Amino acid sequence: MSVPLSSQKLSKARSTFNIFNLFNSFSFVFVSGSIITLFALRMGAQNSIIGLLNALVYITFFMLPLGKRLVRRTSIIKIFGWGWVIRYIMLLPILFTPVLASKGNMGLAILLLIIGTAGFHISRGVAMIGNNPVLGLLSSGGGDKPRSDQGRYLVNVSVVNSVAAIFANIVLAFLLGQQASLWTYAIAIGIGILSGLLGCVFLFKVPEPESFSGNNEQSLWNVTREALLKPEFRAFIFTFMLLSFLSGMGRAFLPVYAKEVFAQGDDAIMVYSIVAGLGSIAMGLITRLVVDRLGSKPLFIIYSMIGLISFLPIALIPGSGALMGAPAIIGLFLSVVHFLSSFGFAGEENAGQVYYFGLVPKEKMLDLAVIYNLAYGIGGSLGSFLGGGLLEIFSNVGLSQAGSFRLYYALISVVLVFVIYSMRNLPHMGAKSVGQSLSVLFSPRELRAFDLLTRLDQSASAHEEVRILQELGKSESKLTQKELVEYLHSPRFEVRSEALLALESIPELDAETIGALIREVRTNVYSTAYVAARILGKQRSDVAIPVLIDSLKEPDYMLQSMAMIALARLGARQAIPEIEEVIRSTENPRVRISGAYALELFGSIDSIPSLISCLKAEDRPANVSDELVLAISGILGIDKEFYLLYSEFIDDAKSGVAQLTAHAHDVLLEKKRLEAWMAAIQELFAAKPNPIPLARLLLNTTRITGSLLILSDALLDPKLEYPGFNFLCAYVALHTENLRDF
């Protein structure tokens, strides 16, 4: 069993690695990517050279096997750190390319650029063997169980990288200007080397990911063969490689497209790089909220679709000539393309990485990281290299620059459609569907709920948890259930209560949550069990009926009360005898009121005698008796009309009787029956009440029902002297034809 890092050590390690990433990402913008492409174009390099330079980025991943062999002799952090230092040293020859170019040796200068770039990426590849184990340690904390914020942390690393890259692109755009000289490029690369070396200082301070290094001596071939025999890993790795291939083909030539088709300056290209960085940040801010809750597979597919959407405008616009006179439209068009491309493909890579970490056991992390990165490298390098050659072919067969790029991106888009369609067969690993995920991504309410869950995970006190849980209760998001259930185990009563109230606000709960609520009813008597019982009733969860019936015997009066109402809402008629027994035997007003309401919900005429027997209790509070009377009216089906008159009667008996008398004149009764009713009322509410005339009147009807027999018998019972019951019987005598009876 692995010993995880303590919370303090994990937080410190993550902060240290974030600082390294800030320097590293800032440096990377100055020594790789667009600046190398622009540098080469400034020296007159053709598309095939641009494709080669972009392909060299992926040579990194072919050097991972060498890094794996070195790890057997020393620590992962040493390989990672010293490899990173060496990669910057390998860039030093590039600083002298302006000297060669100034002497007319442009071909040699380009060759030196290629050699320096190759050296940079080769040493980077050896060092990157440590990247996944370090990320695995910092995302999981080194424990055997995955942390709830594992995916979010991995995306946070991406956000840190994107923020640093944007800042670097802004600085670089000002430095390069409209048409930078070769010396300006060399100075920029020098700045990148220095900032990168400074970042390496922090890399050496990251803890050694010992449990992620593996202990076997298998060859890469055997590891690859064993991994690819598993259909789920094979499906993922080939899909990931194809997406890397298409991403390498498309994204590598966006700067070339902007420069050659729309004649954009170097500074404009860097601005588009900034926009692309904003796309990565936007992706990261959204992904960090949802990836651990939606799962990585739907995001993997959705972001690939966004990448496809980013290429479609290039493939579909009829030509660039119409836009040449509208620089603002060109700038907007290219900005949207760069933003969506980075948003989609950076998101696809992030989701793919999270998917990989969920798919691979940590003891295989080091070995399978080689395969993962090789797949990324093979796909990306082939895409970039073949993409440059393909554009050269299109140009040589007579297509215009705009036409070549249009056909090029059309081909990429067609293949992307097939790849995205095939992704539906990837294992779900407990993820939501693409449809559910899209509904979340386009729902501000759901995103707000996920943001609250993120803050809840990071809360430092019970009081803060309570406040956030209260906000979550207002969101009514169905996708917060799993996290809310976890807070039912809190040692603080207030936290558990607020978690239950938040669950109560959700319209429909899943089976797992219902199971947690049933456990809550069983285990948390005298505290929060009654809230769970109330929720189970509202959810109409039939599986909860047995535990709710058992709860009727509990001494917890709040649980008894809520269990009765919940059973009534569930229509559990088998519980009626027990509920009747509870309200007859209890001395607790709350239990009796709740039981009366439950029997009203059941609507059984057979329960009226039990309610009447409760009215005979000697020490009943008036409010309990009123509830009993209203429950009887509800069973009879006259509660809506009766309630207002009864409220008047309770407030002022004389006024109530007067209102009832006025109501009697509005009812279509025969004159003789109305006169008999008026006489009966006078005797019923006299100083010495005489209920006999009204009892006779109740039975003097064309439709004698069981309810009328019950009421007339109770009216004559000398032990039942409550005026409210008399008032009910007086009202019933006016509506004998409209009573519910079954």
Describe this structure in words.
- It is a single chain.
- The mean pLDDT is 84.
- The protein starts with 6 loop residues before the first helix and ends in an 8-residue tail after the last helix.
- The chain has 742 residues and is mostly helical.
- The protein has helices at residues 7-31, 34-42, 47-56, 64-71, 76-89, 97-102, 106-127, 131-140, 150-176, 182-203, 220-228, 231-251, 254-262, 266-294, 296-316, 327-359, 365-396, 401-422, 434-441, 444-457, 462-475, 481-486, 493-504, 511-523, 529-538, 545-551, 557-569, 576-585, 589-602, 608-615, 622-636, 639-651, 653-666, 671-684, 692-699, 706-715, 723-734.
- It contains 37 helices and no strands.
- The radius of gyration is 38 Å and the shape is elongated.
- The relative contact order is 0.07.
